[in-house]
Amino acid sequence: MQVLSFSDYHNLSDFAASQIAFAIKNNPSLTLCMASGHTPSLTCDLLVKKLKEENIDYSSLHFLGLDEWAGLPPANEGSCHYFFQTKLFGPLQLDASQYFLFDAMADDLVNECNKMDEHIKKIGGIDMMLVGIGMNGHIGFNEPGTPFNSFCHVARLDETTKTVGQKYFTEKMELTKGITIGLRHLLAAKKALLQANGIKKATVIQQAVEGLVTETFPASIMQQHTNGFILVDEEAGSFLNKTH
Ligand code: GLP
Questions:
Q1: Which atom of ligand 1 sits closest to the CA of residue 38?
Q2: pLDDT, tens digit (0-9, with 9 covering 90-100), for 133-167
Q3: Could you confirm whether 138 is annotated as catalytic?
């Protein structure tokens, strides 16, 4: 794992978007798995811009959604599905066959997890993952205590996730469970980027990068990724003690 530092959120997002655009250029049938949320928002905008301006063929790109709030319909503006629809699928006019997301409205969420695991296996694994980090160190909805060898699963959300998650919604939401791609898939991804910006992420970044590798702090798994990169802006990287 390597840490890459950028002066601000724009430069951080621009780098992430360039990495993805470059990967698609080199492998038009790239499988990209991404988190939604505030952190990757600008990356998505810049990626759309780059793909169009540079005339990169993304007609064979395959996209996987990292996670979703259980029970939330895609039309809810706080859902991960809504985020990807408005930020990527719509602007890029992706064909529905080009993306695979959890159906968080399904009666049988375990079946949704099995379907995603099978899909990942069928397509030969994930080429590139772009994830964020939660205020409890989670990745996707891999909450503290999740085994590093987890497949896709339904997670009971911890109190931090329930509280922080309110920021995506205009009214108070009852958030209890999430459905997520498991950490085993992150570790198996050919390349994994974790991005974080802002002073609020400085503590969790310090723990992810310099703390113990432990299942009680899921993002510490990045230290085990042989082609893993932690992208931080100056603020998010400001508590790092060592030179990385
Ligand atoms: C959310 C999501 C994650 C996301 C993380 C950070 O709860 N489950 O996939 O990466 O928390 O979100 P943000 O980028 O909004 O800080």
A1: 15
A2: 999 999 999 999 999 999 999 999 999 999 999 99
A3: yes
With cut-offs at 50, 70 and 90, classify the pLDDT of residue 197: very high
Looking up residue 31, the CATH number of its domain turns out to be: 3.40.50.1360
Pick the catalytic residue from 81, 136, 153, 185: 136
Active site residue 136: yes
Is 0.90 topped by the overall pTM? Answer: yes
DSSP 48-113: HHHHHHTT---TT-EEEE-EEETT--TTSTTSHHHHHIIIIIHHHT--GGGEE---TT-S-HHHHH
38 vs 178: CA distance, rounded Å: 17
Predicted confidence band of residue 243 (pLDDT cuts 50, 70, 90): confident
Active site residue 103: no
* Candidates 14, 62, 67, 112; catalytic one: 67
239 assigned to some structural domain: no
Ligand 1 centre to CA of 140 (Å) is 7
